Amino acid sequence: QVQLVESGGGLVQSGDSLRLSCTASGFAFDYSAIAWFRQAPGKEREGVSCISRSDGTTTYTASVKGRFTISRDSAKNTVYLQMNRLKPEDTAVYYCTLESRYWGQGTQVTVSS
Fold first, then answer.
1. Cα–Cα distance between 111 and 57 in angstroms, integer?
2. pLDDT tens, residue by residue, 15-39
């Protein structure tokens, strides 16, 4: 079955960096687009970034553009989200998803000011 497992979250200070990982199994990873979403307390889940299945095209929401970088490693069936210059407003639970149909359990990112 499809499994997505996130890791790499934590408590950091404003301006620090974190790298989230999403390790996938149970589907054709190389042929699948993977996205990162996040949900802050009291807010709706929002899309953060996506990497395509074919040419590796990436997209970012405006608030993270220039600070976050999404990438994929086919040998490890893993998608990464490198987050630099973190801000308190980046605090949220971060989820990876396959087609918005399958979701991981999420990893908490907390950025203190």
1. 28
2. 999 999 999 998 888 888 999 999 9
- Average pLDDT score over the chain: 95
Q: What is the DSSP letter of 55?
A: S
Tokens standing for residue 42:
């009291």
Give the number of other Cβ atoms within 10 Å of residue 45's Cβ.
16
Q: Which residue has the tokens 């999404």?
A: 70
Buried-exposed string 62-72: b where 16+ CB fall within 10 A, e elsewhere: eebeeebbbeb
What does the angle CA 45 – CA 1 – CA 33 come to, to the nearest 5 degrees? Answer: 50
Q: Is the dihedral of CA 25, 30, 31, 33 positive or negative?
A: positive
CA–CA dist 29, 113 (Å, integer): 37
Please state which of the ranges 9-13, 23-27, 42-46, 93-97 shows the lowest mean pLDDT: 23-27
Can you tell me the mean pLDDT for 60-76? Answer: 96
